[in-house]
Design a protein that fits this description.
mainly alpha, Growth Hormone, Chain: A, 2 domains, two-stranded antiparallel sheet, disordered N terminus
Length: about 450
Amino acid sequence: MSEQTSKSGGWRTNKWVRAAIPALLLHCSIGTVYCWSIFSQEIADYIGYSKGATEWAFSFAIFFLGMSAAFLGNIVEKDIHKSSLIATICFATGMALTGFFIYYGGQHQQSPVSLIGIYLSYGFIMGVGLGTGYLSPVKTLMLWFQDRKGLATGLAVAGFGAAKAIASPIMQSMLENLGEGGIYKMFIILAVVYFIMMFIGHLLLAKPADWHEPQGKDSKPSIIEVLKTKPISNYVGIWVMFYINITCGLALISQEKMIVKCVGLAAYVGIISTISAIFNAGGRLGFSSWADTMKDRNTIYKMIFILSIVFTALVMITSGIKNGEGNGLLVFLVLALIFIVNAGYGGGFSNVPTLLSDHYGMGSISAIHGITLSAWAFAGLTGNQVATYIVNHSGEWIDHDGVKMNPVGYQNVLYFTIALYIIALILCLVLVKPTDKSKQA
């Protein structure tokens, strides 16, 4: 669709109304899954379980996000109206049911019904809404913004990353002002709010009128056939480096709060968390927009991994987490590492659909992107857990101003992440081949 047509055809042919705004409405809603840390302790206390027991709800949500994207990618490919409606219903229903099972758990302390209900509601039902909602606008954005695909997908995925920064203070205020049972009331109220936002996005979302999906089995090759147009090692490289970027990001981000306290910035944890969320969203938009100007989008991943390796190595060499308190330079290095990893974590998400489209074309991009998001599912089950295991089984717990922390344990997590970042960089350089477009350039 030409720029002239999109400007002159009214709102029905306006790329901002039909793609960008609905994408933001969908992603700013489902992105609140990352607000889990704001209320996880309150849920545990209210239903009478440990925080560790309730944490699995978030892990399940990320797992089913990736797996639903992988298995429902073909539905998104065929009918974005059906997929965006599934996303709206599942996400809002899952959130409302989470509120109900929290309420039930408050009435029946330590009831397995409440815990399993939260796993199913927040983990499975919301997870399906997350996966379909995440995928639904991406191909549509790339079709409307043919010349700036990275900017378009970055804008939407930035909405997913920024959702935490936007919603966290709102949720915190609701928890403080809704009185007894505020935790379950918050979920039910937000279920209604997000249903309205996502339903409006669902109604507005539409592909360009001049784009027609190939119909029938004969006219559209299978996903395997599409992937085989390049050496299969090419796709394996993309999948594994995407998995590694998420795993390393989650490993560090899950320990971020305690690392900040270790370097003597306990009073600024909230501010630093907001700044890191901004870097996360900024990386999604900035890296993907930057990639539009490059001959090969894979260059962005090389930059992300090199920056992550350099700053991880600097913090390791200086023992910045362990020795940072009171040392301005070491504090700067630790904060720089946190912000760069957050930016690279976000940038990895926004660049993967456009990188895949450069390699495999637009015909089956939703399905291929969906399969690739399975990497997110498995990273959601490994990143946090491996980091927690390292912290719990190495170093020494100390009392710091009444807070138990393990500076050496947090420092040891970096050995795990730098090894994976090095592997990812090698995959970038060896397995992921330049596109035909970059070769011609």
